[in-house]
Amino acid sequence: MTLQMEKRVSVGRPTSEIFRRRRRALSELLQRKKWDAYFFSGMADLYYLTGFMADGFYGLFTAEGETWLFASALLAGQVRDSTQGCRLVVGRRLSKALRSLMGKHGLKRVGFDSEQLMYRLGAILVREGLRPGENPAAELRAVKAEEELACVRRACQLTADGIEFAKKRLKPGMTEKGLAAELEMFFYRRGADKAAFDLVVAMGPHTALPHHLPGPSRLVKNQPVILDIGCMVGGYRADLTRTLYYGKIFPLFRRVYRTVQAAQHEGIARVKPGMTGGRIDAATRGVISRAGYGRYFIHSTGHGVGLDIHEAPWIRPKSGSVLSPGMVLTIEPGIYLPGRFGVRIEDTLRVTDTGSEILTRPSKGKM
Known about the structure:
Number of strands: 19
Largest sheet: 6 strands, mixed
Number of domains: 2
Number of helices: 10
CATH architecture of the largest domain: Alpha-Beta Complex
Strand content: 15-25%
Distance between the termini: 7 Å
Shape: elongated
CATH class of the largest domain: Alpha Beta
């Protein structure tokens, strides 16, 4: 493929009204949960609510609809330019700023997500009277609005195009690391923000390692190849895995591949409103267990995808996550035979009113 043939993908920035709508929904949710306010520290949550994403940037959102953002002097200008309808607190010690705001505005029941914080900051928040509590933004973010789905769709299509690109690039002597680098450049040249995560390119026995980091290993004849890839468009991510075989396929690999394929088909068939993540996981795990490979399926069946690569809903054993239209999730069963090879097949799906739609389909145009 030549660079001249590549078509860039672009997506518009969400409007300020979209962020105000999200904050209104958060305020209503806080009122229902009887929280006076909630303190956010996660970059994805803060981007979802304000349109700005950075480390060391925090936000306090009240049930009455007020928003205070805490930033260092280094970030203050960017925060002002990127957010609207928020009050900015610059350069003050976080604990003192929180104490002052909570006292001045009578905020008694203030929550924070302890799972997203380092212990030291969590301890400081508890000392200031905040309480660990379930993150309300996770509930809002799980169901994607149309502007979010547009970004996810584009990221998924571009990621699927990346698989087709990689297939054409496979050749003897190519390294895992080299192919991963080519894929990242492919995404960049097509207009993606960046890769959605550390891309997995695994060859030969490395395919038995689910999160193998690409290294200097080179492709040789009669080897499996796992590509677990994704890109980000407009802040939203895609996740797609394909297991390929370079050379003549041997019987055991074919048997394992068909088992994983059947498990994925079973999982996808269960995706619909009202279904729980635990029941979907049990369905895929059952197919693999009945084939005799149960102990070699060593991770969950899937997870939600959006601003984070792993978010609600959770498709894992005993998960109570209930699917609703507009949720985006993966189905990705796998079998890993230590020291030999592994197989994983993954797609990103949208939950529809009656079932699901697979989003990770390549574009119809020529690559």
